[in-house]
Each structure stands twice: as structure tokens, then as C-alpha cells.
Amino acid sequence: MTITFTDRNQLLTHQLKQLCERRLEYALSRFQSMIKSIEFSVSDLNGPRGGIDKACRVRIRHRTGHVIVNHKHEDLAVCISKIAEKASRALSRKRSRSQKFNRTRHTDLIET
After folding, report:
1. Closest CA to 81 of 6, 10, 26
2. Which of 11, 34, 55, 103 is the most exposed place for a label (fewest CB within 10 A)?
3. For the region Disordered, what residue ranges are annotated (predicted)?
4. How far is residue 49's CA from residue 95's CA, in Å, rounded to a whole number?
5. Beta 3-7 vs 65-73: how paired, if at all?
């Protein structure tokens, strides 16, 4: 599972990148066969003014499409942890929705 990082404001330190990799790999490990790529981006919305301004975004490309998850928090480590949880729940919902459809073919309706 490869994670691509985008950080325009130089917010991610080496420790935060490692935290992000660990959290995402742990949260998404059960979906490893579905996932093609993960894009993680971080931005600072308010600049140096402070407040709830650290925004994280995860885009997960998988077999049947993609899932995008966003989260904001004032502490970047907390934001990373929360977004990993949200991404896991979103992929779980996506997988359960795709499994609800009965994809069997009804050959008795087709007359030859």
C-alpha cells in the first residue's frame, strides 16, 4: 500500500508522516486487496492565526472507484488519527453497499 503525500505548507514532519503511514496502514489493512493507491494531503486553512485550521484529505482509489474523506482539527496528529478511522468506515460502507446487489443472471427470463 503506497501513500502519496501532498503538503504545501510544510506541516508534515518526519514523525507525522510515520504516524500517518502507521495509522492508515492499520486502519485500512483489511481492505488491502481492494486499494490501488492512497493520496494524503494536508493544508493550513488560516495560516498562523490558529484555530481549527489543519485540514487533512485522503483519497483512496480502489477497484470500483474512489473514496474521499476530509477532516479538520487544530492538532495535526489528532486529525491524522480521526481521518484514518473515517476512511476505514467509509471503505467498509462502500464494500457493504456493493455486496448488497444480487449479480446473478436470470436466464429463465430469456427465451431462446
Report:
1. 26
2. 103
3. 90-112
4. 40
5. unpaired
Q: Where are the alpha helices (DSSP H) in 34-102?
A: 76-99
Do the Cβ atoms of 74 and 51 come closer than 8 Å? yes
Can you give the CATH number for the domain in which 15 is found?
A: 3.30.160.100
**With contact defined as beta carbons under 8 Å apart, do 25 and 38 qualify?**
no
Beta strands in the chain (DSSP E): 3-7, 35-44, 54-62, 65-73
- Cα separation of 21 and 23, whole Å? 6
Whole domain around residue 71: which residue ranges? 3-100
Cell numbers describing residue 49: 492565526
Interatomic CA distance for residues 42 and 11, integer angstroms: 7
